[in-house]
Design brief:
The chain is α/β, with parallel strands linked by helices and about 325 residues long. The chain is about 40% helix and about 15% strand. The model has no long low-confidence stretch (mean pLDDT about 95). It comes from Janibacter alkaliphilus.
Length: about 325
């Protein structure tokens, strides 16, 4: 396997140092504009809590999280840097835009064929994040993120996705796509990215784990992409047993080399009231895969070799 250097918040590491990797975890999901105006926020307490949760995850044997928090989800790297300095866990960050509908107003009038007609500004910004660094932090993104939800391929979603695809082709950076399984939007994402010349083996079809439809999942995998079985703990969207059994069946069919694992959890998310979140999805936290999911997979005959593929080899290959 060829080595590659992977950018983390603390700097570049060799891909062989990624270790056990959860491929889709957020540290914070925040509306920064909302937070500044309406939320009670104790920065030091939030940082301390995040450090505690991430160090606990490291203690459970995980080495790296990939954090796809981009524009639209409250990416603020200086806060993440402070956390990374106090944790042994590698944090790998992303660039891109998270939208289900429109592009942000900063791009509404600016771009090819628009009022201010110029090359796609998103490509320039994403490329800077990947090659020079995010803002003035010196931290470089290592992968790209876009989304396609139940609304499907709206003009805004398509524009972001094509900009992400073009950036991937130009830089070699891999891609993670937030998808909705109920309209099989992973297939739409593959089609758009394929049109832009993207290598689909460098793409994680995120939130594939919300589906039990093995025909859909194997079609995505057969086209080359990795399946993000990455919402363990969100049992309200699909029960634990169904999530585990679907991964086990993929492994039985020889697809372990196409699966990556995660929770899509966060230390703090301002989309829901914190107390209600704990009641509705009590296992939606970073510990769940280590404590509950891996033992349940092993009970269903998933081998240590398959777990190594899903947690270590596949994330590593994604960056190589």
């Amino acid at each position: 396997m060829t080595m590659a250097s992977v950018q983390t918040v603390r700097g570049s590491i060799d891909s062989s140092e990624l270790g056990r990797t959860l491929c889709h975890e957020h540290v914070f999901v925040l509306g920064e504009e909302h937070r500044l105006n309406y939320e009670q926020w104790d920065e030091e307490a939030q940082i301390a809590d995040a450090v505690s949760q991430l160090n606990e995850l490291k203690g459970l044997g995980m080495d790296t999280i990939m954090d796809p928090t981009v524009l639209g989800l409250g990416r603020y790297i200086p806060r993440i840097q402070r956390i990374a300095e106090q944790s042994e866990l590698n944090i790998v960050v992303a660039t891109g835009i998270y939208t289900y509908n429109d592009v942000p107003f900063q791009f509404h009038y600016t771009g090819p064929g628009l009022l201010f007609d110029m090359p796609e500004p998103m490509v320039e910004l994403f490329t800077k994040d990947l090659t020079e660094g995010i803002a003035d932090t010196g931290v470089r993104a290592a992968f790209l993120k876009c989304a396609i939800e139940e609304q499907g391929l709206t003009p805004g979603v398509e524009r972001v996705m094509r900009a992400v695809g073009q950036t991937s082709v130009q830089t070699g950076a891999p891609i993670t796509v937030h998808t909705n399984v109920h309209n099989q939007s992973g297939l739409v994402a593959q089609q758009v990215l394929r049109e832009e010349g993207v290598d689909l083996t460098k793409v994680v079809i995120g939130h594939s784990g919300d589906s039990t439809d093995l025909d859909y999942l194997t079609e995505l995998a057969d086209a080359g992409s990795l399946l993000g079985m990455d919402r363990f703990g969100l049992d309200v969207l699909l029960p634990f047993e169904d999530r585990v059994e679907t991964v086990a069946e993929l492994c039985r069919r020889g697809y372990a080399e196409k699966v990556v694992l995660a929770h899509d959890a966060s230390c703090t998310i301002d989309w829901f009231p914190a107390d209600a979140k704990r009641q509705v999805v009590p296992r939606w936290n970073y510990r769940h895969i280590s404590e509950d999911v891996l033992p349940a997979l092993q009970e269903r005959g998933v081998t240590d070799a398959d777990i190594e593929l899903m947690l270590v080899t596949n994330p590593r290959r994604y960056f190589e």
